[in-house]
Specification:
The complex is a heterodimer.
Chain A lengths: L5 E11 L2 E12 L3 E5 L6 H9 L9 E6 L2 E2 L5 H7 L4 E4 L13 H12 L4 H14 L18 H13 L5 E5 L7 H18 L2 E6 L2 H7 L2 E6 L2 E7 H7 L3 H10 L14 E13 L11 E13 L3 E5 L6 H8 L7 E6 L2 E2 L1 E2 L2 E2 L1 H6 E4 L13 H5 L12 H14 L16 H13 L5 E5 L7 H17 L3 E6 L2 H7 L2 E6 L2 E7 H6 L4 H9 L13
Parallel strand pairs in A: 3-8, 3-9, 6-7, 7-8, 13-20, 13-21, 18-19, 19-20
Antiparallel strand pairs in A: 1-2, 1-4, 4-5, 9-10, 11-12, 11-14, 14-15, 16-17, 21-22
Helix pairs in contact in A: 3-4, 3-5, 4-5, 5-6, 6-18, 9-15, 13-14, 14-15
Chain B lengths: L1 H28 L4 H6 L5 H11 L5 H13 L13 H36 L4 H15 L2 H15 L15 H35 L2 H9 L3 H30 L2 H6 L5 H10 L3 H29 L1 H6 L1
Helix pairs in contact in B: 1-13, 5-6, 5-8, 5-10, 6-8, 7-8, 8-10, 9-10, 10-13, 12-13
């Protein structure tokens, strides 16, 4: 590995039919350097990475030049590109859960990179694979090479993917949203590992991420992209200090968007009361005659949400927050404890209580998956009407649809459209309209803004706050994103391994956390540098 | 793995018991006297009574069921009313035709379907793919007896490579036997191959868009290598399911083909027994077929586990 290796992209353009995907993108990467491309979805950042790897979808031909140590990669044959991929340039991807072949052991998958490119014996390759797995934090004595991907957690799988990419000590590493699907503490570990690898092995890394906070702590250089164009570029510190392009500033502001949350009504009556709730799942029996073990996903949880309050629930994946949400929504019975809304139980006997269900509505994370694509909007957002005792008249229904659509900033005409005609942000507005249509007292937001771009997320957060005052709503806001919870909740609960380990006013818990777990969460969360005072115009 | 196999074996046993109960109930306990039914409407009362006694219909139902099941377990399937020979012997003779025929057809359909599916998936949307899709559509739409007749016209009547029908028996030699089964096996296999290649194609296309295929390419594998090393085994899971269903179908569903080629197979035996009201034979053959289907499913379940390590820890 020479220290003067260089990857230069010059005037890279790409179009699909009349749609321009990349427009004269240029960047350069040197050994030992980290360059970040950031931007919102559709900005072309992932396409840039795939173009460098020569792995664009079939039918796309880029123009311009991509030079690796002075050699134009775009003029290489497929066979030559195969020799280069994994050998000179390694790549890691966003989804560690699906990036590995589920049917092959992790050892074999790391080994494969070596065997494709070198003449080394299988035994020697195995030795090197073990060494690299050790390097990425998976010591073979603990994580045997014969493990399968499904036996590892998301973070561990991402380490395997990294091991596969770096096993031949490539000159360059391309990381496409490498930590987006991971929890904050895992994200911090993976980012630290990547940074370490770049510095110690002298690799050059191109990291692609939508998260400005990640970029700020990691990259030497930043490129801001929108709609296939590089809008602004520069060394990280300078770029953050200058922010000469308005879009950069907008991104930055939206990322640290603060909503103006009105104070909650003082000493309001309790609305939702969760009392000693336990939800356990039976694990598969170990032997035919052994007693089945159970796993407590929610373990003796109690809390009260008062009318008009915005309560946050944070925790990492697997902590039990989704199980608790399902129990509150009455989607699943609990083994012990009670959940009541205004004193009425969520479960009435063996079935969910309709009166309570009417008063609790939910907005889910995925604005694409949570609508039946074959129904029109008017039908989709009136779905909660099945909870009514008597059906509404056609007129009242239409009036309610119009009102709900207007309330979330859409037009009454949108009722006749199908969900695919809306963008992700608009769909999340539709989901909110659906939650709003029965005029519930409580809306549960389950990671409701996690899948949105920062600028859209800021708008949706504003809408959520605005609705809470207009319709006197209470919120339970579930998220893994501390910055979102910080801005939109009055009180927050931190959940770990099925139990609430800390709760209190948001300002207090997220500024002076007492529980070590909350402290570690906060320490791991990447932070944006403070916004420059000067108004960029 | 052992525990999983035992569990599957247990469920196999339960399925067999339930199946035997249903078959027994439908044929023996259903309204109407089997003896009278077997002898036809014009039978004399004393003949019916004699047959009832011979069939053991005069003993209680539970006892009869147990005797039937017990008999089958010890290899005694009873005596055919029409032919006056042990049913077990009849089935065994026919099995030597039907089982090799089904295996040949399944092998052929797999040998045709997997490469064709691979080829089509690899050229998705291209001319080769379109040709495959068109041909397989035809293969599914055209009934297998029509293929059979075309094959007879071409290879037996015009080219005279094969005989038009009949089965000389395995005593005449392995090659002679295989040759007699070739045309029927091809006729049976073609529609199955059409279905299987479509399944293979769509399974592979799904796999090709998986993230791990992109990871494989990023390592430096060529498209072909990635497909062979990472795609094929993953695509095998849906293919195995269909193959299991097809084998069961081929074993029992060859009635028409056996008729076209005058093959003394199980399908023809059932067909004849039903028309001759030989209920003992029908009952036993149906039970045997159910047994075959359940055993094949058991084998498919074990194959899943062999292919997919995720199932090994789950169970």
């Amino acid at each position: 590995m020479s220290d003067d290796s260089a990857l230069d992209v010059m005037g890279l353009s790409l179009s699909l039919g009349r749609l321009e995907i990349l427009d004269a993108v240029s960047l350069s990467l040197r050994a030992g350097e980290i360059v970040a491309i950031t931007g919102e979805s559709g900005s072309g950042k992932s396409m840039t990475a795939l173009a460098i790897m020569g792995l664009l979808p079939a039918g796309m031909r880029p123009s311009g030049q991509i030079q690796l140590d002075g050699r134009d990669m775009l003029s290489l044959s497929e066979r030559e590109m195969c020799r280069l991929r994994g050998n000179d340039i390694g790549m890691i991807f966003q989804e560690p859960m699906t990036a590995l072949n589920p049917l092959k052991t992790i050892g074999d998958q790391v080994l494969e990179t070596i065997l494709i490119h070198t003449e080394s014996s299988k035994a020697a390759a195995r030795l090197r694979a073990a060494e690299v797995l050790m390097r990425v934090g998976l010591p073979p004595e603990k994580y045997s090479l014969s493990r399968y991907p499904h036996q590892l957690s998301g973070g561990q799988r991402q380490r395997v993917v990294i091991a596969m990419a770096i096993v031949l000590r490539p000159k360059f590493l391309i990381a496409d949203e490498p930590t987006t699907a991971l929890d904050v503490t895992t994200q911090a570990q993976i980012l630290a590992l990547l940074k370490d690898l770049v510095r110690q092995e002298g690799m050059g890394m191109l990291i692609i991420t939508h998260d400005l906070a990640v970029v700020g702590n990691l990259a030497d250089h930043i490129l801001i992209m929108r709609r296939g164009k590089v809008l602004e570029r520069g060394p990280t510190k300078q770029l953050f200090a200058a922010m000469s392009h308005p879009y950069t500033r907008m991104l930055f502001e939206a990322s640290s968007h603060q909503v103006s949350l009105p104070p909650p009504p003082p000493e309001a009556a309790p609305l939702l009361q969760v009392c000693d709730v336990t939800r356990a799942y039976q694990l598969p029996r170990k032997g035919i005659f052994s007693v089945a073990q159970s796993f407590r996903a929610v373990d003796n949880v109690s809390f009260t949400l008062r009318a008009g309050e915005r309560l946050g629930l944070v925790g990492e994946s697997g902590c039990g927050k989704s199980t608790l949400t399902r129990a509150i929504l009455g989607l699943e019975p609990v083994q012990a404890g009670t959940i009541t809304l205004n004193g009425a139980p969520v479960w009435a006997g063996a079935r969910p209580n309709r009166v309570v269900r009417r008063n609790i509505q939910v907005v889910f994370q995925d604005p694409y998956g949570s609508f039946n694509p074959r129904h029109k909007v008017a039908r989709l957002i009136t779905e909660p009407y099945h909870l009514l005792d008597a059906p509404l008249s056609e007129q009242d229904r239409e009036a309610a649809v119009s009102e709900a659509l207007v309330a979330v900033g859409l037009s009454p005409d949108d009722g006749g459209k199908y969900p695919h005609e809306f963008s992700g942000g608009q769909r999340q507005r539709l989901a909110i309209a659906r939650a709003l249509i029965l005029r519930p007292e409580l809306i549960v937001f389950d990671e409701a803004v996690s899948a949105l771009d920062v600028s859209v997320r800021a708008q949706i957060l504003d809408l959520i706050v605005d609705l809470s005052t207009r319709f006197a709503l209470s919120y339970l806001f579930i998220s893994h994103d501390l910055s979102v919870v910080r801005s939109i909740t009055d009180r927050v609960m931190v959940m770990q391994a099925g139990a609430i380990v800390e709760h209190g006013p948001t300002d207090q818990v997220l500024v002076q956390p007492r529980h070590p777990y909350t402290q570690s969460l906060l320490a791991a969360a990447p932070r944006l540098p403070p916004l420059p005072k000067r108004v960029a115009q | 793995m052992l525990r999983y196999s035992l569990k599957r074996l247990l469920s196999l046993g339960i399925s067999l018991v339930v199946a035997s109960l249903v078959i027994f109930a439908v044929i023996e306990v259903a309204p109407g006297d089997p003896a009278r039914f077997m002898l036809g409407i014009n039978a004399q009362p004393d003949t019916v009574a004699a047959l009832r006694a011979e069939l053991g219909l005069d003993v209680p139902k539970v006892q009869r069921y147990l005797a039937w099941v017990g008999g089958m377990l010890s290899g005694d399937f009873g005596i055919s009313y029409t032919y006056r020979v042990p049913v077990g012997q009849m089935i065994a003779d026919r099995m030597w035709v039907s089982l090799p025929l089904a295996l040949m057809a399944l092998t052929l359909s797999t040998v045709i379907a997997l490469p064709v599916g691979l080829y089509a998936a690899n050229r998705r949307g291209g001319r080769g793919d379109m040709a495959v899709m068109g041909l397989t559509q035809l293969g599914i739409a055209v009934p297998n007896f029509w293929f059979a007749m075309i094959l007879v016209v071409i290879f037996a009547i015009n080219l005279r490579w094969f005989s038009a029908g009949g089965f000389p028996g395995w005593d005449a030699g392995l090659l002679v036997g295989l040759k007699a089964l070739t045309l029927p096996a091809v006729a049976l296999a073609l529609p199955q191959a059409a279905i299987l290649s479509r399944v293979m194609r769509s399974a592979l296309i799904d796999i090709l868009s998986e993230d791990f295929m992109r990871t494989a390419r990023a390592k430096g594998l060529t498209r072909q290598q990635a497909l062979w090393r990472h795609g094929l085994r993953n695509a095998l899971i849906p293919v195995l399911t269909i193959m299991g269903l097809q084998f069961s179908f081929l074993l029992a569903g060859a009635i028409i083909i056996e008729q076209v080629f005058f093959l003394p197979g199980l399908g023809r035996l059932v067909f004849q027994s039903i028309s001759q009201r030989d209920l003992i034979v029908v009952e036993s053959v149906v039970m045997l077929l159910v047994f075959a289907v359940i055993v094949v499913n058991f084998a498919v379940d074990l194959a899943y586990v062999a292919v997919d390590p995720r199932l090994r820890t789950q169970l």
